[in-house]
């Protein structure tokens, strides 16, 4: 049982003791703290509103009812999008001129997890400073609920699926006609969540008529581990080959991460989702790029090729967005398949990612696998170690930093060590009680060896 409070929101497992899981009491407490912050910021305004949406998780209706009722008890009106996606809620917040938004999703975590992802009035994740303030208010339980005649209201709004798609179709670099002419046959793994509704609707709007959807029941009973990694996509790969499809698409439960499968069932590589979309964007408009420091160096090479400058950021969407704004990036994201298109909106969005990727592919002569061959073959070994409660990770990383002090080291976010052209990044997860160990090299075995060496260093110091 877990409860994690970080820049990625309030995340935990359903069921268990208060204060140790995402219990009903904790849901109410953190929602009340968030609403309290919004009310204080609004000053003397009589009414404020918050957009709420959820993915397909089993616990979604329960969590949603607690969240909306708590906001109403603070006198806050709720615009309830119901079953939705993270990027759709992010788009809805500024369109509705709302003071904030809450997305009920634990993203790639298994079905027993859920979370409150908290947005500001721009539809972007709240800052670390605001997050700290929220935790203090929640701990003090310093809430002031309104009288009965000042309770907030709930407005159901199911229009944002179409509004999101319409915005994508209107985006200048999305080539609907070129995509339609290709007559793509596409298999989608929708992981029994809202991607089963949103992704096919987008594909049809782009002129794709031959669509096969796997795991299409929006039940929250995920057919496999919901993180879109190669080990979890065997069914998608085999279906692409069996159906002789042009490509496969996988998204996570809240549709902000995206990866592709080639026509032969091989992985395009989640790291290369951003690389390919950035290549397309940069071919149309010059500028800078950003990704977090756990992402492939291939993005830097593509950026330099197009005459731009690449900038790394700390891990976490809010950190990537902050860096993108600072350097005026035209495209950015994360190597986990997260695409951020700043003049669309500052948030990871698998739907605009799909449209831009297919626009790129539609302008190429060959298949998706031939597109993949345009980019360098680097291998990232992604590993993790579960942490016992009370593990002193900062001390562990300090000892490892001392051991490798003669090498280039970056400790902005955990510890990143460079070994000539290779690297390894060690950091505490924002979403799980684990330390992640990512390493990259031009040879798969070399990347794995680097990761395993550092994993041993960690274990020796635990």
From TrEMBL:
<keyword id="KW-0413">Isomerase</keyword>
<dbReference type="GO" id="GO:0005975">
    <property type="term" value="P:carbohydrate metabolic process"/>
</dbReference>
<dbReference type="GO" id="GO:0008966">
    <property type="term" value="F:phosphoglucosamine mutase activity"/>
</dbReference>
<dbReference type="InterPro" id="IPR005844">
    <property type="entry name" value="A-D-PHexomutase_a/b/a-I"/>
</dbReference>
<feature type="domain" description="Alpha-D-phosphohexomutase alpha/beta/alpha">
    <location>
        <begin position="8"/>
        <end position="143"/>
    </location>
</feature>
<dbReference type="Pfam" id="PF02878">
    <property type="entry name" value="PGM_PMM_I"/>
</dbReference>
<dbReference type="InterPro" id="IPR005843">
    <property type="entry name" value="A-D-PHexomutase_C"/>
</dbReference>
<dbReference type="InterPro" id="IPR005846">
    <property type="entry name" value="A-D-PHexomutase_a/b/a-III"/>
</dbReference>
<dbReference type="GO" id="GO:0006048">
    <property type="term" value="P:UDP-N-acetylglucosamine biosynthetic process"/>
</dbReference>
<feature type="domain" description="Alpha-D-phosphohexomutase alpha/beta/alpha">
    <location>
        <begin position="272"/>
        <end position="377"/>
    </location>
</feature>
<dbReference type="GO" id="GO:0009252">
    <property type="term" value="P:peptidoglycan biosynthetic process"/>
</dbReference>
<keyword id="KW-0479">Metal-binding</keyword>
<keyword id="KW-0460">Magnesium</keyword>
<dbReference type="InterPro" id="IPR016055">
    <property type="entry name" value="A-D-PHexomutase_a/b/a-I/II/III"/>
</dbReference>
<dbReference type="GO" id="GO:0000287">
    <property type="term" value="F:magnesium ion binding"/>
</dbReference>
<dbReference type="InterPro" id="IPR016066">
    <property type="entry name" value="A-D-PHexomutase_CS"/>
</dbReference>
<dbReference type="InterPro" id="IPR005845">
    <property type="entry name" value="A-D-PHexomutase_a/b/a-II"/>
</dbReference>
<dbReference type="InterPro" id="IPR050060">
    <property type="entry name" value="Phosphoglucosamine_mutase"/>
</dbReference>
<protein>
    <submittedName>
        <fullName>Phosphoglucosamine mutase</fullName>
    </submittedName>
</protein>
<feature type="domain" description="Alpha-D-phosphohexomutase alpha/beta/alpha">
    <location>
        <begin position="164"/>
        <end position="265"/>
    </location>
</feature>
<dbReference type="InterPro" id="IPR005841">
    <property type="entry name" value="Alpha-D-phosphohexomutase_SF"/>
</dbReference>
<dbReference type="InterPro" id="IPR036900">
    <property type="entry name" value="A-D-PHexomutase_C_sf"/>
</dbReference>
<dbReference type="Pfam" id="PF02879">
    <property type="entry name" value="PGM_PMM_II"/>
</dbReference>
<comment type="similarity">
    <text>Belongs to the phosphohexose mutase family.</text>
</comment>
<dbReference type="GO" id="GO:0004615">
    <property type="term" value="F:phosphomannomutase activity"/>
</dbReference>
<dbReference type="InterPro" id="IPR024086">
    <property type="entry name" value="GlmM_arc-type"/>
</dbReference>
<dbReference type="GO" id="GO:0005829">
    <property type="term" value="C:cytosol"/>
</dbReference>
<dbReference type="Pfam" id="PF00408">
    <property type="entry name" value="PGM_PMM_IV"/>
</dbReference>
<feature type="domain" description="Alpha-D-phosphohexomutase C-terminal">
    <location>
        <begin position="401"/>
        <end position="454"/>
    </location>
</feature>
<keyword id="KW-0597">Phosphoprotein</keyword>
<dbReference type="Pfam" id="PF02880">
    <property type="entry name" value="PGM_PMM_III"/>
</dbReference>
